[in-house]
C-alpha cells in the first residue's frame, strides 16, 4: 500500500518533532533494565534497536549515599581500586537509546540494598554527587563516561523518608541549570495508597512520572476491577501532588515469573488500560518489570500495540497525525474479551516491614495477595540490609489465628502449632542473594490478617 505524498509529508513533519519521549502522552511504555529477571538479559543496545519502549529505567543504584550500582550481567567491571561500577558498553548503549528518542533514567533503591539518608544536608550533598557522576557535572569516576542520563527514579522499598525531598529539590535545581534538554523525576511506589515509604515525600516534592507497582499486593492487576485502586492514585495526582500534571503509569509484571502475584495476560492488561484511559486523564502509560521478562513473554510487543492503537499525547497535531496514520495503514485496535480475575474481598491491608530477628540483617515484610472466599495468598519479602545471604536460608513466623499454610512458591514449608518455617532449596537458589520474594497459600477463617512481622526470624548459613 502506498501513502499519499501529502500524508507522508504530514507524518514526517509531525513525527520528526514527536520522535523524542513526550511525558504528556498517555501511551508511553517504561520498562526496567538491569536485574536480568528472566535470566536471559541482553545488552541495553539490543532492546533499543526498535521502538517498543519509550523509557528505559536502569536498575539499580542499590547503595547510597555510599554509592553502589548493580546491573547484573550488563556491567561487572569496576574502576581501579574501587567498588564503583564502570560501564563503558552501557554508556554507548545509553547514547544509542537516546538517539532513538528514548529517555533513560537511573533508579535508586530497589527491593534490597543499603540505602537511605540521615539528614537533608546529606541528601543535598549526594544530589551534587549524582549530578556530577551521571548528568552534566564533572567527576573523575563517571560510571557511564560522557553519557548524560535523562532523570532519576526513586524505587524506595525500605527505610524512612528523611532527605528525599531535599534530594529532589537539589536535583531539580541542577536540572534548571541546563536548558539543553528535559530532565525528569520519577517514583515507583507500591499500589497501597499512600505509599509506605515515600507517601509524605510524594505529597511535598515534584514528580513527573509515577510508576505504580500494581503487583505483589492486594490492589494489583489481578484484583481488577474490585480492589484495583488506580482511582486512588488519580485522585492523588489531581488533588495532592505538587505537579498537577504528573503522569501515573500502570505497573505490570512483564511475565508470569516476574512477580509473586499480579501478572495478567495481554488481553486482560488491554482491558484494564482501556478502562483507565477512558476515565483518568492522569494516565501516562504502562510500566513493566522488567525488559527481559516482557520481551521473553511477548507482553512487550502487545503493550506497544495497545498503546499505539489507543493512546494520545498532549498535542492535537500529534493526535491528528496518529489518527491519519492509523486510517491510512488500516491499523485495527486489538480487542480481547475480559478475563475473570481473582477478586479481593477484604479491606485494605498495609504492609508493615520491620527488621527481622536472626543472624542476618534483613527486613521482613508480608503483603496481601489474592483473597477469594476462604483461600488466601500472602507475599513474603525478605531483603538484606547489609551483605548478601547464602542459598541456605530459612524464615519462621507466627500465623494469625485461624490460618493454615498449604504451600510456598519457594522452598519447603513445615508447621508446628501456629509457627511456620520455610526453608530454602539450596539447589534452586543463587549462592548469594540480596532478597527472597515468594508466595505462600492457604486457608483462613474469620477475617484475613497479615502475619505479625515482629515474629519473623531469618537465618542463613
From TrEMBL:
GO terms for cellular component: extracellular region
Enzyme superclass (EC): hydrolase
Signal peptide: 1-20
Annotated ranges, domain GH18: 27-310
Gene Ontology molecular function terms on file: endochitinase activity; polysaccharide binding
Catalytic activity: Random endo-hydrolysis of N-acetyl-beta-D-glucosaminide (1->4)-beta-linkages in chitin and chitodextrins
Keyword Ribonucleoprotein attributed: no
InterPro entries, sorted: CBM2/CBM3_carb-bd_dom_sf, CBM2_carb-bd_dom_sf, Cts1-like, GH, Glyco_hydro18_cat, Glyco_hydro_18_chit_AS, Glycosyl_Hydrlase18_Chitinase
Superkingdom of origin: Eukaryota
EC number(s) stated in the UniProt entry for this protein: 3.2.1.14
Alphabetical list of Pfam families matching this protein: Glyco_hydro_18
PROSITE patterns in alphabetical order: GH18_1, GH18_2
Family: Belongs to the glycosyl hydrolase 18 family.
Protein name: chitinase
